[in-house]
Specification:
Length: about 650
């Protein structure tokens, strides 16, 4: 009877993605338990906080977080072993395609241990350096963290950064060595590194293989034994931390909350500490692995709340919610993420502006670390200046905008925020290169210019020390120190301009170390720097969207490179196109794209009209992503070519 009963609407929608899970396995048992609940809501009210564990898996990129999460979900019956639901946590298409975790996800499991039933909430975290903001947010909902280290690679830059994030937030760190099945695994060596870097006894480290399942049965007992249960009291009024949100096309805004005190259920009226706005709770539940309604969420639990939030801008990550008429002191919240890479985004077709505006708003709800400002460019029209945490973050956002919202956009070359100190004592941040003052204006009005710096941590085998030092110095880096983390691996700290690491620094790091170096960085404030604006002129007209800011020392090389690259990517048109780069009021380089109409049907002799049409249509299709600037048509690659130059300043992709 219970298997056939209609589940609430949200659960029905889930069945489209996970057809068997809501009916078979443990799920059936829980629905059965709530026989008294006509809505078929899962009853988790009988699980006291002592039998709840909220934990996270932190690791360097590719060390196996998602694989381990899948194994744990299989072990607890949340997903089947047949493979249909693999990589539950890597939900976004872009994540699956790129094999990286971008958005933190959460999932609940039930587990029997020593005759007791435990509710375990796993909050996944991204591994890439750009997303450390997401990591600290997820950790705020947890009491424990599995520190997963690849037994073949040993500790990497992101392992170090994530360990300190978790440690700093007072979490119990549970170390584990993964991939011990690999022939190249050296678990003893990796354990020694963990011992020396984090002062954790090698004997306390579990050895597992998330891929083969070896030792995975010991993971959850270790979490239960070592991670403390969530603090808080059921008797106190509701205090819930909003730590993640997303937009669901069916139900609107979904809030992921960690209940720190009290409880919340359908029909409750809750209030946002941030805005004072009141909401009526329409549904609460846990991610199992999709949204599964429960009768309530109570102290210690992590789950979702749907509460008629109308506008996507209403959900403030880090906000505290309380029951109406029972105000509580707000939790500390989160320091807003700082955007360090800015790029202009413009619709290819100006008529798409409103639709694109809506898509950007929806995407930024799922990613509040993106800053959004409207921008108008003389060349590209109305658009936005978006701020990102890094270039991978930017790339992922662009991909999601194009794929999930089917929008046709043009993204300008990214830049870091520069600071101008004027002679009158005032200062200003510049996020758009076109706004950077010209040389003549600088002479009379600007005292000096500043750029942001970072302290980078690089970990690599000793034999690459020379190459890594050279890489840092050619990118205007200043070596701070280098230490050996064991007899073969070096950890190097270096201070670099932020603009240098948003160029192709990461690609070079990987190629110069044959993929063995890992990299992480933290912001290190602003310093004075000799900066100039490089302008690009097409047929004598300056194109504001192609301007870049760079260090004085690289003007000549970069100017030539940009002109050369633009020549390669701009298609021949019906007239000559003269490309010039200029800085300090002087032309640095000049290139010409000779006129020519590419006859794509030239090879089609005879009268096969369908083939000719096909080729002409293909050519038309290619032109869709062009933007007409003056008379010249510029492809997206023209904007990307500015950022992939090898000189200083500017930016590039680190993915
Ligand atoms: N041999 C072996 N391979 C593993 C093991 N665990 C994970 N892998 C492989 O390592 C690669 C990366 O695993 P993921 O689980 O995607 O790594 P991740 O840490 O989630 O990656 P991000 O989400 O990008 O940070 C995949 O190809 C896995 O199949 C293991 O125990 N042994």
């Amino acid at each position: 009877m219970l298997q056939t009963r209609r589940l609430p609407s949200a659960a029905w929608r889930c069945t489209a993605q996970a057809p068997t899970q809501l009916y078979w396995g443990r799920r059936r048992w829980y629905v059965a338990r709530s026989a008294d609940n006509k809505r078929g809501e899962m009853d988790i009210s009988t699980i006291p906080p002592e039998r709840i564990r909220n934990f996270s898996i932190i690791a360097h990129i590719d060390h196996g977080k998602s694989t381990l999460a899948d194994r744990l979900l299989e072990l607890t019956g949340v997903i089947s072993k047949t493979g249909k639901n693999k990589q539950v946590l890597d939900k976004l298409k872009v994540e699956r395609e790129r094999g990286i975790t971008v958005k933190a996800q959460s999932v609940s499991m039930f587990y029997e241990y020593k005759g007791e039933r435990y509710l375990l909430n796993l909050v996944d975290t991204p591994g890439h350096v750009d997303f450390s903001y997401e990591v600290s947010r997820s950790l705020a909902a947890c009491q424990g963290a599995i520190l997963l280290v690849d037994a073949a690679q040993g500790i990497q830059a992101q392992t170090v950064a994530n360990f300190y994030l978790a440690f700093g937030q007072g979490l119990e760190v549970i170390p584990m060595l993964n991939k011990v099945d690999l022939p190249t695994a050296e678990p003893e060596r990796a354990a020694k590194q963990i011992e020396s870097a984090f002062e954790i006894e090698a004997s306390e480290i579990l050895h597992i293989s998330a891929k083969t399942g070896l030792g995975v049965d010991q993971v959850l007992p270790a979490v239960i034994e070592q991670s403390p249960p969530p603090p808080g009291s059921l008797g106190k009024p509701l205090k819930a931390l909003l730590f993640d949100t997303w937009y669901d096309t069916y139900v609107g805004v979904v809030c992921l909350m960690a209940v720190k005190d009290g409880s919340v259920r359908r029909g409750d009226r809750i209030v946002s500490s941030h805005s004072g706005t009141k909401y009526e709770v329409a549904e609460v539940g846990v991610m199992y692995p999709e949204q599964t309604p429960t009768t309530l969420l109570q102290v210690g639990q992590v789950g979702y709340v749907i509460c008629n939030m109308k506008s996507i801008a209403e959900a403030h990550v880090g906000d505290t919610f309380y029951q109406d008429k029972h105000p509580v002191e707000a939790l500390p919240g989160f320091v807003p993420a700082k955007s360090m890479v800015f790029a202009g985004v413009f619709p290819i077709d100006a008529g798409e502006f409103d639709r694109l505006n809506e898509s950007i708003q929806k995407l930024t709800l799922n990613d509040s670390s993106v800053s959004v400002h409207k921008e108008t460019s003389a060349a590209l029209g109305q658009g936005w200046r978006l701020g990102f945490l890094g270039t991978l973050h930017m790339d992922v956002f662009r991909q999601r905008l194009e794929e999930e919202y089917d929008t046709n956009i043009l993204v300008t070359s990214p830049t870091v925020p520069y600071q101008i100190k004027y002679c009158d004592g005032t200062s200003k941040f510049i996020r758009t290169p076109a706004d950077f003052p010209d040389a003549s204006y600088m002479q009379d009005h600007v005292e000096y210019t500043m750029e942001p710096f970072v302290v980078a941590t690089l970990i690599f085998p000793e034999k690459y020390l020379g190459a890594m030092l050279e890489l840092c110095t050619t990118h205007r880096g200043e070596l701070q120190n280098h230490t050996f983390i064991d007899e073969l691996r070096v950890m190097l700290k270096c201070r670099l301009p932020m603009a240098e690491i948003v160029t192709d620094f990461f690609d070079k790091l990987k190629s110069k170390s044959q993929g063995f170096a890992s990299f992480d960085y933290e912001e290190a404030g602003y310093d004075a720097s000799d900066l100039v604006k490089m302008e690009v002129l097409l047929n004598g007209e300056a194109v504001d969207a192609l301007a870049a800011v760079m260090h004085k020392s690289s003007v000549v090389t970069a100017g030539r490179e940009i002109a050369g690259r633009l020549k390669d990517v701009i298609r021949r048109q019906l007239f000559d196109i003269i490309i010039q780069t200029a800085a300090n009021g002087k032309i640095v380089a000049r290139e010409t794209v000779k006129q020519l109409r590419k006859n794509v049907t030239a090879k089609c002799y005879g009268g096969d009209i369908t083939r000719k049409m096909k080729l002409l249509n293909k050519q038309k299709e290619g032109k869709k992503r062009m933007k007409r600037i003056g008379k010249v048509e510029l492809p997206q690659e023209a904007f990307l070519s500015i950022m992939t130059r090898s000189g200083n300043g500017g930016s590039g992709s680190d993915s």
